Amino acid sequence: MAGAADNPAACAPVEHGYSIDVEDYRQILSARYRGEAGPVTATFERNMETVTEMLAAAGTKATFFVSGMVAAARPDLVRRWADLGHEIASHGLTHEPIWTMTPERLREELARAKQTLEDAVGRAVAGYRAPVFSVRWDTLWALEAIREAGFAYDSSIVPVRMRWYGVAGFSDRPQVWTLRSGDRIVEVPLTTVRAMGMRVPLGGGYLRLVSRRRIERLVGEAEAAGHAAIVYAHPDEFGAEPFQAVDLARGWRDKAAAAAVALKSNLGRRRIPATVRWMLGAFRFSTLGRIAEGALNPKAQGPPP
User: Fold this and answer.
1) Pick from 196, 133, 131, 129: which is nearest to 162 by CA?
2) Predicted local confidence at residue 12, as pLDDT
3) Which residues contact residue 287 at a Cβ distance below 8 angstroms, ignoring those fewer than 6 apart?
4) Which domains does the chain have, with CATH numbers?
5) Mean pLDDT estimate for the chain
6) How far apart are CA 125 and CA 87, in angstroms?
7) Residue 229 pLDDT greater than 90, yes or no
8) CA distances (Å), 33 to each of 37, 243, 254, 260, in order?
């Protein structure tokens, strides 16, 4: 039987991927209810300051999938995050899911979102994550458009079927996909975990449902198999003040929907920062760009700089 010495991957420390979907949810709801995103809010800025301080305390560099609405309103913030050493990647332009778009519109949004970020940071942007994880079985065609736009990797797939998104049966490991065009793209899917009798992505508000023991077991299993666990978060999960959005809505239906969003967002949210701090201290995390590079060139991946 082969031992660890026979398997170099088993001996090397595994770097997991930590990512932030950098979106101001009040911008998203303002665009939905009022037709315009409006400015980035002070609450969003405070939440992102908490995120960057937490990552700095852990010595972790993460991938920031930045919404085009945030990047257009505050390119100075995007530059600051890049200057801190975090990877800047795209989270789309308008936060509309891919299933609402034609291929032509998606190509236009991809190009504009990428250019907005590259103008802000002065360097190429390699990664993309679709809003609402909206690359699913009926939108897998989008991977061709994402690669055509110049992205080297995608991290939009949740490998389990959920209400609005997910690709059931998809591998949970970072992998190189050969597209119909013959080109290649790295897919870095989200890790999933069982909670409340169902499988959910590891991160976001779902961290409220998952015990540390279960996370430790899941990430430990990934390490034993020699592949990365991919975790995600949103800025509003780190806020000290409750999230609210009813004031953005106008009609009673929209106000009821906004109230439901706020209730769901606030329930148990205060547990999340402590869980994230524990995770960052317990495991070794890096950017998804490094993990994608490792999938393309497994022998070339060395220790983080």
Assistant:
1) 133
2) 56
3) 17, 18, 61, 62, 63, 86, 87
4) 15-296 (3.20.20.370)
5) 88
6) 8
7) yes
8) 9, 17, 7, 15
